[in-house]
Amino acid sequence: MSKTKVLVTGGAGFIGGNFVQYMVNKYPHYDVINLDLLTYAGDLSKHRSIKDKVNYQFEQADIADRKTIMTLFERERFDFVIHFAAESHVDRSITDPSVFVRTNVMGTQVLLDAARTFGITKFVHVSTDEVYGELDFDPAVFFTENTPLQPNSPYSASKASSDLLVRAYHETYGLPMNITRCSNNYGPFHFPEKLIPLTISRVMNDQKVPVYGDGKNIRDWLHVWDHCAAIDLVMHEGVSGEVYNVGGHNERTNLEVVKTIIHTLGKSEDLIEFVADRLGHDKRYAIDPSKLEHLGWKPTFIFETGIAQTIQWYVDNTEWWERILSGEYREV
User: Fold this and answer.
1) pLDDT of 221-278, one tens digit each?
2) Is 256 one of the catalytic residues?
3) Which GO terms describe its molecular function (predicted)?
């Protein structure tokens, strides 16, 4: 009997990388193939603990390279595709939107064509709450799966576009799929250009921490390990064609997050430096994950315990993020 084969795209990144480890360790009877181009945010050192396991392999490739992707699908005959690979940094999308369109839209189309051509059990497309646009500060209002898509940055527009392509391939061709839309993730191996790891690394080095605008923009924070468990459930139990929101019930302002990190590390709030606000900076994201909770998932981390665990991980793993900041990881 052949083993179940799972393709994880973007498995050298933050969320995809955590998911690869989760799957390799939880399902030793699955073959997990990590596909990543290894752009600036891709780092394989996070997989040292699993790289020699018999159910793990790595493939370096560009998801927008049609010939290579088709050849890979023909050879491996995947059962599941879990699609994380994406350009994801909003500031970079403002500087150069074209890169985001190529990877996030065209790359997704190539994967969908390959999945349709060679047949799969399910295509799980990992998206973001940013496709919904922004909410005001009314704490009673949340994004649901029926909220209209109103993206406000080139990044979120490219993700919304890929979401619609995945939906269209289901409706037009009958491709079995799910879309998940998550709130802001945090946890181990988060690339240090993002708010939480950036703040931790700067505070540990007694450097100024930039905070956009007045710092009152609100995000719902989801621990990456909770996110991995959610995707696992959707992959195996999600109703084909459905969208599932994944949220952590942990809304905080950006300023609150920064202050929590500063206080935990015993440093001064004088390190905070308010800077010009980001273009098109959404005020608030907040997810209603009731649909996924009815499927059987609940987050296990409240923010207080999750952020404490995350800060301690960065304290204990300074070598990892220092290699990232110095650029040394690119030499491997």
Assistant:
1) 999 999 999 999 999 999 999 999 999 999 999 999 999 999 999 999 999 999 998 8
2) no
3) dTDP-glucose 4,6-dehydratase activity
